[in-house]
Please model this.
Amino acid sequence: GRGLHPVKLYWDLDVLLKGAHINWNHSIFPVFLDFTRQPIRFGPDSKDPSSKQPWFDMIRLIMHGRIKFRIQNLTGRVGAVPSPYATLRHYIDVSSDEVVLLLSKLEPPTAAPVQMRFEGLKLVPTIFQPGQKTELFISRFEINMFPTYYCKDGWDPTNHYLVPFRDPQLPSSTYYTVVKVDEMPQHLLESNRTKWIHWTQHLPTDHDTYEKFRSRKIDLNLDISIDFRNQRGTIYSDGLSTIMNVAMMFGSSNPTFKPPPKVKPPRGKPPASETLGMLLNKFNVNLAVKQLNLDLWNNLEPENGLHVKVDSIGFTLSTIRSDPFPAPMKLSCRCAEIHEVDVDITLPKMDVGAYENFPNRGFLLKAKRIEVITIVDENQLKKSGTKRGLNSSDNEAIMRRASAGMSPFHGFTPADNYGRGNRLEQDQFRNNVIVQELRLFWSPERRDAIFDWPPVFAVRNVVLEGSHKFNTTTSPLQEQGAESQRLVPSLIQTGASLRPLLQEIKTEEHLAFVQSFNPSEGNAQRIMERNPIALVNVNDVQVLFQSSEMTSLAILTSKEMNTNVVKKKIADQDESWDETEVNLALEGAEIYSVVKYLDVFDYGRTWVPLDAAAILSSASRTRSKFEKVTDHPFYLDMCYVAPAAVEHTDDHTSARPTKLLINVPDLSIVSTSPQFRTVFDVVTKIMMKRAPFNYQVQQELSNLKYGLQLAGIENPRRNDLMAYANQIKNVVRLFDYSVDTGTYEYVSQYMKLETAEISVYEVRRRYIAKLRALLTYIKKEHNVSAGSELYPSMYLSYSFDLWSWKLKHTNGQDDRPFLELRLEELVCRHIFYVGKVSSQEFTFED
Model:
């Protein structure tokens, strides 16, 4: 049997494995955890009546010395789908040249008490597209763990020399004097040897030999270092989906198969009640990433890629428990620093600024330093408003309006929440981003490609929504005869064979219908929820504007740019919807144009030299390229409001137009005619240029109206239209899921493509256009007068409190302007409709 003293292990051990292979899945975790509980059952418990200690205290008590565990040429597989019945096999193949696990308590101390290191780590997530491969190379991955234990009454946590029953009258240094606790009466031994009085009967009921040794609280520090050493990695969006599934699997607190509960073994002691989570007092994570070089490819939009290079990333996360358990851990610090970010973009047809050796690749952006800080202190949070500083502008009237939080914009109706003079919300942002030296290249093709990236990061699933929740039993479609029943295949013409499939889709999700807001109605909107996401402050920003239709380019510079992002829940009468609000403010902005030497212009490397050092280091010919257009620095306020994309949300609402509002208090331009033409082209050919997808929506909208007309349906019910929109949304979701899982050939079979030249991706875009066209039609038919045939897609308003233009001679012989035009309160309003139609309104005072 076991004695009173615990068994202790002292070792200096080196273990080497070669060519090991390891498989891991979330469903293995409960089995593995249950297995670790069994070795203690091979022998009886200690005679010591003290309660059991948690596993981390047992390690401190029993294991001493050093263990170095090495694995050479390790291969393994980490599964992301715990269910054995899953048809998709999301997993990551892992290989490493060497893995080292070091546990040491010896002197001199090692880098960390617990250290794990991977050399030559390679991650290959599952992808499903033929001819593609996702690989991520990490030269060195290291984790150092620093646990700190706090015991009762300041007991040294490294002092494991404990005597079960020490005489309290003797000094604590005399550890090995044992007190006799029982002397069996002689008459009992002689008369009846089967009758015993157990020796523990004379001990206190709450006796605990390890009372002072037990951990009362624990601090845990993790230092993680990842060094890529500029080894280029490649990740396709389906591989990214696999990585996200694995990350969610490890972060899940509820695995598919839960481990069995802890129970008291036969003739044993009950398990320890303490857990690491209960005693954890502080938890700190420090992450350092070096020399990241990554290529990201968008499977939903083929040949659309981003190439990211980052010199270093630092991340710190700290949490603390201010009150005893079960009080939650509270965030005490979260910050990150990113240095030297450089991003290129690849497009099927690069419009302008492509590299000479790579005609489809060009510069997108770069930043010298990005810092992300989360404000924890409530007092500091109250000071983090979005008001412009009082010293930012010389115009007192502008500053009074800005400091009072009043809107400088001109809306489209008197009830517009963003109308001039209305009070704007002053948000407080916990997440603050500070960017140093931002350089950005903005062109129409780059803009459209960037907006195609958010769906890539969505989590795919096949939980679709049926139309059985919509009451269509008394539909006008049925009342107007059997011919009207062909409306569904007319809405999804190429997908007519999908109708039996879609009819079988059943869910129990609640469906809510939301009408869209139309500014012409004049109904004020109410903000039900307002969630400030982040406040971004950029120092020294330059944005290059050019399109393939321009023979020159313009660069907007600004000393400071403040941007904030807010998520909102908007309600209008009994309806609600989600939208994103982006506010931007430029301070000390200038406009430069380049109308000459474009043949030698180095995109991504040539920028306006603003400080003295940059001016001196620039060649004279480089300086001569940039021609200043503005007479003095100006300020700009912008507000962009966009509802969530209908094809990527669960909201059952009609399509809504976006809104872009711009105000410049004082803009003075001094230019030649080519320079003014450059600025004008930026507004008309870049900022106001419609996306090609908009014309496809117009075509589908015309097809929808023509189909309804042929079917003789004058006033279709909203529920019918929403049911059909729900079917098309399911088709889009099937497309995205199938493309990310390599099963798009099954979807293409359902689609019955007319010709082999039409790709699945083209059909996907067609269905998104059909969906937007249908939801746009619903918005028009139920919210606009019956006589209107226009469908607004965007409201644009830009205004100038004071605008002046001075025209100079082009030949440069005379710098004095010969023509000057001044306007006060210049307001320009544009309404863009689906298709090529738009309306303009220009007003000014003097």
